[in-house]
Structures are given as C-alpha cells and as structure tokens.
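Bit of a strange request maybe. I'm writing a small parser for structure token strings and I need a real example to test against, not something I typed by hand. Could someone generate the tokens for this chain?
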Amino acid sequence: MGTISSGVGLISGIDIQGTVDQLIAIDARPKQLLQTRNTVLQSQATAYNEVSARLLSLKSTVSPMLSARNFRATSATSSNSDVLTVSSNSTTPAGSYKLSVDRLVTSQQAISRGFVDRDQTALGESTLSFESAAARLDSKTLLSELNGGSGATRGKINITDELGNTAEIDLSKAVDIEDVLEAINNAAGISVQARVDGDRLVVEDTTTGTATSTLSINDVPGYSGVTASLGLNATEVAGTITGSQIRNLGENSLLSSFNDGNGVRVKNGFNVHDLTITDRAGGVHLIDLAGLNSIADVRNEVEEVSGGAVTFGIGADGVSVAFTDQSGGGGNFTIAAANSSGAAADLGVEQSVASNTITGTRQIAGLNSKLVRNLNGGAGASLGTITILD
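Reply from user aminoacidic:
Good idea to test on real output. This should exercise your parser:
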C-alpha cells in the first residue's frame, strides 16, 4: 500500500517542514552564538599563548642583562700571540699593558724510594702537610697592587748616601716589593738599607763617618715618576727617608682583593640585598652588592639607591671603606646585614652610630704582610705587648 508524504498541510496549505526548520533554527541561535563566541575565545587564547611564548623568549633573552657583570665583560688581544696569549674576565681593568720577560718558569720533581705495592707499605712519615702559598705570612706585595691599584712606575733611580756615593738602581723588571728591596740593599757603592714599614717604604743611610752629603733618591734622567710611585720622593730626616703611603685603596680597587684576597661575602640572586642602611633621617636603603666589582661600582650603587642620602668611599686611613650620611637627620646612622649576608661583617661596617660617618675595618694588609684577623683560620690573634729575652 503506498504512502503520501508532504511538507504541506493537506487542508491548511501551510509549509510545515519549512516552519519546523525555521523554529529549530530560531531555537538553535543561542547555540550558534555560543559556538561563535567559543571560536573567538579560542582565537584569543591562541593569540595570548603566542604572546606568552614570545614574552618567555624575551625574558630568557634579557635575563642576563639583570647582572651588572655581563656589562663588564672584556676581551683581550696579544700583539704577538706566538709569544704570549692573553685572556680577560669581568674584573680585568681596561687598558694596554707592556710585558717584558724577566724570569722563566722552571719545573721541580721529587722522587721517592720505590714501593712494591701502592696501598700497603707506609711512607714512613708521621704527618704530611699541604698548604697554599697564599697562607704564608711572608707574602710578596706586587707593584701592580700599589697606589690604589694604579701600580708603580718601573724604571731606574739614583740613590746618593751621606758620603756622596751614588748608585744607579734598575727597577725596570721589578715585579714585587721584595724585588725593590733586594735591588736597593744589594746596590754596590752605597751604604743604605731599605725596608717596609706598614704601608710605606723606608730607606736609611748606614754610612759611618762625617756626612758630606744628604741621603737622596731621584729618577735617572730619561725616566719619570719611578721614585714618586714608590713614595720615596720625600725629604731626608736624620739620615732616613720615610716614604709616603703606597699600600692603599683606590677607586678601581676590587672587592675580590679585600680581606687578604678572600673578598666580600655577598648574596647572589635577583633583588637579594646585602646591606640595610638606615640614614639619620629615618630613610631605609637596601643595597645589593652582587655583581659589583670595584669601590667605584659600590659608590654608584649606594648613591643611586639612596638618592644621595648616603655616600660611599675610601676611609681617611686609605685602607678602609666609609659610609657617610648626607640626610641631615638627627637619629642614629645604622648599617646592618640583610638576608644573612656577610658583607657588612667583612667590611666592618655593621654599626649604629650617632654621627654621620661609619668607617669599616682595614681591608688590605700592609706591604708584604697579612691581616691579623685572618690568622688562626680566621679566628684572629690577640694583640698586646710581648717581651723577648735573648
């Protein structure tokens, strides 16, 4: 039996199929709007993900810029790489350097008796001691470390003793203070004795008899600044020339050279501070020393962070650092350690005073010497008076 199918009402003539389709379409509009909105949101999410990925890429690219060390990177070249190769790092002072070969490295070898086994027979020694050369008390101060890191001028000097005898002394190849002392003390034809006294050199006349001249030290013609750079351009007093201070800090002195080369302990990490400074007006300034290399770097950081309320520099003694309050307040001037950093203790500035200046402890030892506080494994030594009986 056949069937009749029609989308049109047999009596009403209304297009039922079309009407139903339209009603369904009307009911489906919210769904379509949600689908459209979902498509837009998906597009936005894709765009945000792309932006996020690019920001992450940018962050990884600029993150190294947060460290000041990367801006201080240096490179070095040699005029004759067949003879000398060079390298540098962020702490290398910029400039041109002329090198001359004075002494060559020699090898040393020690041979023990033979052993039939490698881990059974004893060496026959009760104690073996291994120490770093840096642990020696009779250290040698390099000429490059003098005058705040500016070094000493090499060349030739003339020394005349009180009998009028003169000797020309060649210091053009001197490397350290010991070389200078040996050259003066071993000079033929004159009677003088050179020694170190704290941060300066002292040259004494040792002649006997009636003086016919005055002890003097001068540059040999053709050389300039040698005597002055050694602090020996001073006036003789009672047969002795006491030099000026040549072992001191300078603007370019490295923090790594402080405390006998142990440096200053700082906290690493972005926005991790080392010092909390409270000025006399009550302002609090957080100082981050990580990535700073020299005294000049610290000065710039302190003045920038504090807005000039606190300044930083070299102490009056030339061998310590000092913070100065410029705020004009009447409270205490305080420096404390932040985040358990050792910087305040190492600099000796962990203090609270009712004055405008906080001066730290001595940061560099005298000529050919070590800081007393670093003796006995850092425990220091008690100072006082001793009696020596022969």
